[in-house]
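Per your request, structure below.
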Protein backbone atom coordinates (compact mmCIF):
# COMPACT_ATOMS: atom_id res chain seq x y z
CA UNK A 1 0.00 0.00 0.00
CA UNK A 2 2.99 2.31 -0.56
CA UNK A 3 1.19 4.32 -3.25
CA UNK A 4 -1.89 4.81 -1.06
CA UNK A 5 0.25 5.88 1.89
CA UNK A 6 2.18 8.33 -0.28
CA UNK A 7 -1.06 9.96 -1.45
CA UNK A 8 -2.26 10.26 2.13
CA UNK A 9 1.04 11.75 3.30
CA UNK A 10 1.04 14.24 0.44
CA UNK A 11 -2.37 15.45 1.59
CA UNK A 12 -1.71 15.39 5.33
CA UNK A 13 -1.68 19.15 5.89
CA UNK A 14 -4.75 19.53 3.75
CA UNK A 15 -6.51 16.85 5.83
CA UNK A 16 -5.50 18.52 9.10
CA UNK A 17 -6.94 21.86 8.01
CA UNK A 18 -10.15 20.16 6.95
CA UNK A 19 -10.46 18.54 10.37
CA UNK A 20 -9.93 21.93 11.99
CA UNK A 21 -12.60 23.39 9.71
CA UNK A 22 -14.95 20.51 10.54
CA UNK A 23 -14.51 21.16 14.25
CA UNK A 24 -15.26 24.87 13.77
CA UNK A 25 -18.36 24.06 11.69
CA UNK A 26 -19.73 21.68 14.31
CA UNK A 27 -18.81 23.76 17.34
CA UNK A 28 -20.34 27.03 16.17
CA UNK A 29 -23.47 25.26 14.89
CA UNK A 30 -24.23 23.32 18.07
CA UNK A 31 -23.14 26.17 20.36
CA UNK A 32 -25.81 28.37 18.81
CA UNK A 33 -28.62 25.95 19.68
CA UNK A 34 -29.29 26.92 23.35
CA UNK A 35 -30.12 30.47 22.23
CA UNK A 36 -32.91 29.35 19.87
CA UNK A 37 -34.17 26.09 21.37
CA UNK A 38 -37.39 27.58 22.78
CA UNK A 39 -38.17 29.80 19.81
CA UNK A 40 -40.80 28.98 17.19
CA UNK A 41 -39.70 31.64 14.71
CA UNK A 42 -38.15 29.19 12.28
CA UNK A 43 -41.26 27.01 12.22
CA UNK A 44 -43.48 30.02 11.59
CA UNK A 45 -41.28 31.23 8.74
CA UNK A 46 -41.55 27.93 6.86
CA UNK A 47 -45.06 26.92 7.95
CA UNK A 48 -46.68 27.96 4.68
CA UNK A 49 -43.64 27.42 2.44
CA UNK A 50 -43.87 24.94 -0.47
CA UNK A 51 -42.81 21.39 0.36
CA UNK A 52 -39.82 21.66 -1.96
CA UNK A 53 -38.47 24.67 -0.07
CA UNK A 54 -39.04 22.94 3.25
CA UNK A 55 -37.08 19.92 2.08
CA UNK A 56 -34.17 22.04 0.89
CA UNK A 57 -33.81 23.70 4.31
CA UNK A 58 -34.18 20.38 6.15
CA UNK A 59 -37.73 20.78 7.46
CA UNK A 60 -39.19 17.29 7.67
CA UNK A 61 -42.81 16.56 8.56
CA UNK A 62 -44.02 17.86 11.90
CA UNK A 63 -40.56 17.91 13.48
CA UNK A 64 -39.86 21.39 14.81
CA UNK A 65 -36.74 23.09 13.51
CA UNK A 66 -36.01 24.27 17.05
CA UNK A 67 -36.10 20.72 18.46
CA UNK A 68 -32.79 18.85 18.80
CA UNK A 69 -33.62 16.47 15.94
CA UNK A 70 -34.93 19.23 13.69
CA UNK A 71 -32.00 21.52 14.40
CA UNK A 72 -29.30 18.90 13.87
CA UNK A 73 -30.90 17.65 10.68
CA UNK A 74 -31.60 21.06 9.15
CA UNK A 75 -28.37 22.80 10.13
CA UNK A 76 -25.82 20.02 9.77
CA UNK A 77 -27.05 16.90 7.98
CA UNK A 78 -29.19 18.65 5.35
CA UNK A 79 -26.81 21.50 4.56
CA UNK A 80 -23.34 22.14 5.98
CA UNK A 81 -22.06 18.59 6.41
CA UNK A 82 -23.06 17.21 2.97
CA UNK A 83 -21.68 20.30 1.23
CA UNK A 84 -18.37 19.90 3.07
CA UNK A 85 -18.27 16.22 2.09
CA UNK A 86 -18.94 17.03 -1.57
CA UNK A 87 -16.12 19.58 -1.68
CA UNK A 88 -13.73 17.28 0.19
CA UNK A 89 -14.70 14.18 -1.79
CA UNK A 90 -14.52 15.71 -5.25
CA UNK A 91 -11.13 17.21 -4.45
CA UNK A 92 -9.45 13.97 -3.34
CA UNK A 93 -11.23 11.94 -6.03
CA UNK A 94 -10.27 14.25 -8.88
CA UNK A 95 -6.71 14.58 -7.60
CA UNK A 96 -6.16 10.81 -7.34
CA UNK A 97 -5.53 10.19 -11.04
CA UNK A 98 -6.52 13.24 -13.09
CA UNK A 99 -4.69 15.70 -10.84
CA UNK A 100 -1.54 13.60 -10.83
CA UNK A 101 -1.77 13.30 -14.61
CA UNK A 102 -2.14 17.07 -15.01
CA UNK A 103 0.90 17.92 -12.90
CA UNK A 104 3.13 15.17 -14.32
CA UNK A 105 3.53 13.07 -11.17
CA UNK A 106 1.50 10.21 -12.62
CA UNK A 107 4.26 9.61 -15.18
CA UNK A 108 6.79 9.24 -12.38
CA UNK A 109 4.62 6.71 -10.56
CA UNK A 110 4.05 4.62 -13.67
CA UNK A 111 7.74 4.64 -14.55
CA UNK A 112 8.25 2.39 -11.53
CA UNK A 113 7.55 -1.37 -11.62
CA UNK A 114 3.87 -0.98 -10.73
CA UNK A 115 0.76 -1.64 -12.79
CA UNK A 116 -1.86 0.92 -13.67
CA UNK A 117 -4.42 -1.13 -11.76
CA UNK A 118 -2.38 -0.98 -8.57
CA UNK A 119 -1.86 2.78 -8.89
CA UNK A 120 -5.56 3.42 -9.52
CA UNK A 121 -6.81 1.08 -6.78
CA UNK A 122 -4.46 2.37 -4.11
CA UNK A 123 -5.03 6.04 -4.95
CA UNK A 124 -8.79 5.49 -4.89
CA UNK A 125 -8.71 3.61 -1.59
CA UNK A 126 -6.54 6.33 -0.07
CA UNK A 127 -9.15 8.93 -1.10
CA UNK A 128 -11.90 6.83 0.45
CA UNK A 129 -9.93 6.48 3.69
CA UNK A 130 -9.42 10.25 3.79
CA UNK A 131 -13.09 11.11 3.45
CA UNK A 132 -14.15 8.37 5.85
CA UNK A 133 -11.63 9.71 8.36
CA UNK A 134 -12.81 13.30 7.95
CA UNK A 135 -16.45 12.29 8.25
CA UNK A 136 -15.80 10.03 11.25
CA UNK A 137 -13.90 12.73 13.12
CA UNK A 138 -16.56 15.35 12.35
CA UNK A 139 -19.34 12.98 13.42
CA UNK A 140 -17.46 12.16 16.62
CA UNK A 141 -17.27 15.89 17.34
CA UNK A 142 -21.05 16.13 16.96
CA UNK A 143 -21.54 13.19 19.28
CA UNK A 144 -19.21 14.68 21.89
CA UNK A 145 -20.60 18.23 21.74
CA UNK A 146 -24.31 17.41 21.49
CA UNK A 147 -24.89 16.60 25.21
CA UNK A 148 -23.23 19.78 26.62
CA UNK A 149 -25.30 21.95 24.29
CA UNK A 150 -28.61 20.19 25.02
CA UNK A 151 -28.88 18.46 21.66
CA UNK A 152 -28.82 14.88 22.96
CA UNK A 153 -32.23 15.14 24.63
CA UNK A 154 -35.90 14.68 23.76
CA UNK A 155 -35.46 11.29 22.12
CA UNK A 156 -32.16 12.10 20.38
CA UNK A 157 -29.27 9.91 21.45
CA UNK A 158 -25.59 10.07 20.66
CA UNK A 159 -26.06 6.84 18.68
CA UNK A 160 -28.72 8.50 16.51
CA UNK A 161 -26.19 11.20 15.60
CA UNK A 162 -23.57 8.56 14.85
CA UNK A 163 -25.89 6.67 12.48
CA UNK A 164 -26.77 9.90 10.69
CA UNK A 165 -23.05 10.49 10.30
CA UNK A 166 -22.72 7.02 8.75
CA UNK A 167 -25.26 7.92 6.06
CA UNK A 168 -23.43 11.19 5.39
CA UNK A 169 -20.14 9.27 5.08
CA UNK A 170 -21.61 7.04 2.36
CA UNK A 171 -22.81 10.18 0.59
CA UNK A 172 -19.26 11.55 0.67
CA UNK A 173 -17.73 8.30 -0.60
CA UNK A 174 -20.04 8.53 -3.62
CA UNK A 175 -18.58 11.90 -4.62
CA UNK A 176 -15.04 10.62 -4.20
CA UNK A 177 -16.00 7.82 -6.59
CA UNK A 178 -17.64 10.12 -9.14
CA UNK A 179 -14.62 12.42 -9.34
CA UNK A 180 -12.17 9.50 -9.36
CA UNK A 181 -14.03 7.64 -12.11
CA UNK A 182 -14.26 10.70 -14.35
CA UNK A 183 -10.60 11.55 -13.86
CA UNK A 184 -9.37 7.98 -14.35
CA UNK A 185 -11.58 7.30 -17.37
CA UNK A 186 -11.16 10.56 -19.29
CA UNK A 187 -8.40 12.59 -17.64
CA UNK A 188 -8.57 16.26 -16.76
CA UNK A 189 -8.96 17.33 -13.15
CA UNK A 190 -11.17 20.26 -14.13
CA UNK A 191 -13.52 17.95 -16.00
CA UNK A 192 -13.78 15.59 -13.03
CA UNK A 193 -14.50 18.48 -10.66
CA UNK A 194 -17.07 19.99 -13.04
CA UNK A 195 -19.01 16.75 -13.48
CA UNK A 196 -19.05 16.14 -9.73
CA UNK A 197 -20.23 19.71 -9.08
CA UNK A 198 -23.01 19.38 -11.65
CA UNK A 199 -24.20 16.15 -10.03
CA UNK A 200 -24.05 17.73 -6.57
CA UNK A 201 -25.84 20.98 -7.44
CA UNK A 202 -28.19 19.43 -10.00
CA UNK A 203 -29.05 16.65 -7.58
CA UNK A 204 -29.91 19.18 -4.90
CA UNK A 205 -32.27 21.03 -7.26
CA UNK A 206 -33.81 17.73 -8.34
CA UNK A 207 -34.29 16.80 -4.67
CA UNK A 208 -36.30 19.99 -4.18
CA UNK A 209 -38.47 19.24 -7.21
CA UNK A 210 -39.03 15.66 -6.08
CA UNK A 211 -39.96 16.83 -2.58
CA UNK A 212 -42.45 19.25 -4.14
CA UNK A 213 -44.07 16.28 -5.97
CA UNK A 214 -43.19 17.82 -9.34
CA UNK A 215 -41.22 14.80 -10.60
CA UNK A 216 -41.62 12.23 -7.84
CA UNK A 217 -40.59 9.19 -9.97
CA UNK A 218 -37.10 10.71 -10.28
CA UNK A 219 -36.44 10.53 -6.54
CA UNK A 220 -33.92 7.70 -6.82
CA UNK A 221 -31.88 9.64 -9.39
CA UNK A 222 -30.52 12.11 -6.84
CA UNK A 223 -28.14 11.16 -4.02
CA UNK A 224 -29.67 13.96 -1.94
CA UNK A 225 -32.94 12.02 -1.78
CA UNK A 226 -31.16 8.87 -0.68
CA UNK A 227 -29.68 10.86 2.21
CA UNK A 228 -32.51 13.24 3.13
CA UNK A 229 -35.79 11.50 2.37
CA UNK A 230 -36.43 11.52 6.14
CA UNK A 231 -35.04 13.21 9.24
CA UNK A 232 -31.90 11.17 9.84
CA UNK A 233 -31.65 11.95 13.53
CA UNK A 234 -35.29 11.40 14.49
CA UNK A 235 -36.37 8.66 12.09
CA UNK A 236 -33.23 6.64 11.46
CA UNK A 237 -31.46 5.78 8.23
CA UNK A 238 -33.30 5.11 4.98
CA UNK A 239 -31.80 1.85 3.63
CA UNK A 240 -31.00 3.51 0.31
CA UNK A 241 -28.71 6.00 2.08
CA UNK A 242 -26.26 3.12 2.61
CA UNK A 243 -26.57 0.55 -0.15
CA UNK A 244 -27.15 2.88 -3.11
CA UNK A 245 -24.11 5.17 -2.66
CA UNK A 246 -21.81 2.29 -1.74
CA UNK A 247 -23.04 0.07 -4.57
CA UNK A 248 -22.76 2.82 -7.16
CA UNK A 249 -19.36 3.82 -5.77
CA UNK A 250 -18.04 0.30 -6.32
CA UNK A 251 -19.38 0.31 -9.89
CA UNK A 252 -17.89 3.74 -10.64
CA UNK A 253 -14.50 2.81 -9.19
CA UNK A 254 -14.37 -0.43 -11.20
CA UNK A 255 -15.36 1.37 -14.39
CA UNK A 256 -12.80 4.11 -13.85
CA UNK A 257 -10.00 1.60 -13.22
CA UNK A 258 -10.96 -0.41 -16.32
CA UNK A 259 -10.99 2.68 -18.53
CA UNK A 260 -7.70 3.89 -17.03
CA UNK A 261 -6.01 0.68 -18.21
CA UNK A 262 -7.10 1.33 -21.79
CA UNK A 263 -6.23 5.00 -22.06
CA UNK A 264 -3.29 6.38 -24.02
CA UNK A 265 -1.65 8.65 -21.47
CA UNK A 266 0.68 10.30 -23.96
Amino acid sequence: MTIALRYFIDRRRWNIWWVVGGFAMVFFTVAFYPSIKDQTTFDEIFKDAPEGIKALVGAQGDISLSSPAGYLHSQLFAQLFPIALIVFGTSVGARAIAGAEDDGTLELMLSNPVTRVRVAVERYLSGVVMIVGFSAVTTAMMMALAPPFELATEGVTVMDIGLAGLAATCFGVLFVSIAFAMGAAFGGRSRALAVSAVIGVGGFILFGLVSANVITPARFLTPWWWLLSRNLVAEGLPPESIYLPLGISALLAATGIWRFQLRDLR
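DSSP finds twelve helices and no strands in the chain.

Regards,
D.
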